[in-house]
Amino acid sequence: MEPQALYDLSPALQMMLVGAVIALGPLAWVWLRNAKASTPRRLQALTVLTLFLTFDLVLFGAFTRLTDSGLGCPDWPGCYGNASPLGAVAEITHAQTTMPSGPVTHSKAWVEMVHRYLATAVGVLILTLTVGSWWARKRGLADIPVNPWWPTATLVWVCLQGAFGALTVTMKLFPAIVTLHLIGGLVLLALLCAQAVGYSRWGREHAALQMSPTVRRWVLVVFALLTLQIVLGGWVSTNYAVLACDTFPLCQNSWWPVMDFRQAFQIWRPLGQLQDGSYLGFAALTTIHYSHRLVAYVVLLALLALAWRLHRHPATRRQARWLAALTLLQFATGLSNVVLGWPLLAAVSHTGGAAALVVVMTWTVCAQRRARPSSRPRLSA
């Protein structure tokens, strides 16, 4: 009798192969379009393309979560030990027959696995970016504007993000883990955006912004408020508390509905339950939703005020316009989620708007530098 392996690595290896094959397309596109370009220009193109595909991955992750496809394949990294749902037809059919509206169906399995394929491909692109940056450094190219430790840190982070993706499945949509997975995707966007800004400044496409200390502090404070709001929004989504208040501006015909903050922010617990095994109460779901809504009012005003302040200076009008447009989009999609009963398009767009705001705020922070006494114009306080 042959000894049985403690763990079957074939699904993981096959997933890595699929991700590498998918990544070949973007890599070939970058290479062909920049065949005669310098190494920094190639790295810049790869960074921007990876940022774009990571944004798409965040959107598809939201689609996966919002279509209840997160457990479409209840194991990881494969699907019932296979690299694709094609090898798990019998298992998926049995699960779907047993529970037709359950978490495992053929369509949900494909949604979940496509998300994993895309995530693996993004990981391959970041690995390529890291290797390319260190290779350029080893060749002694002093004009590389982004330190190779930036893509290295991004590679470490995407591996950590993959671990959270695995825990999302194996821990059965544990709210804290799912929220951290969502936040991790946005941090990944910020890391890539910071590198893209570094390359764009090297390419002289965007001059470094000179901001007064007051404006710089405003940007950082608003970014912190936005981060808090995104965390609260992730907590709403992962606890399925969107419809706890289905009217606006009132919630359950009250400006201050019945709430339970103790249950609402008990962080480490299974989905829909408390730590003692009892069910999460409706008052707790109301608290989760309404806390996000109340902070949204503050963040909405802060973002619009920052956009107005940045628009006063020609150098930051692009960021100001993006901030204003995305803020209004977030308000519209958030309101649509409440009054229209959480439509899929509005829900995915709401996550996309949050991701876009993170990118624009990171762009604003990384493009600035301290104002120095000179004849050049500066942002007024």
Features:
mainly alpha, 66% helix, disordered N terminus, disordered C terminus
Summarize the structure.
This protein is mainly α. The protein is about 65% helix and about 0% strand.
The count of β-strands is 2
Order of helices and strands: HHHHHHEHHHHHE
Low-confidence stretches: 1-6, 370-381
- Share of residues in strands: under 5%
- The total of helices stands at 11
- Terminus-to-terminus distance: 78 Å
Kindly state the percentage of residues in helix.
Answer: 55-70%
Structural class: mainly alpha
- Main sheet summary: 2 strands, parallel
Radius of gyration: 23 Å
- Name the shape in a single word: flat
Q: Give the spatial strand order of the biggest sheet.
A: 1-2
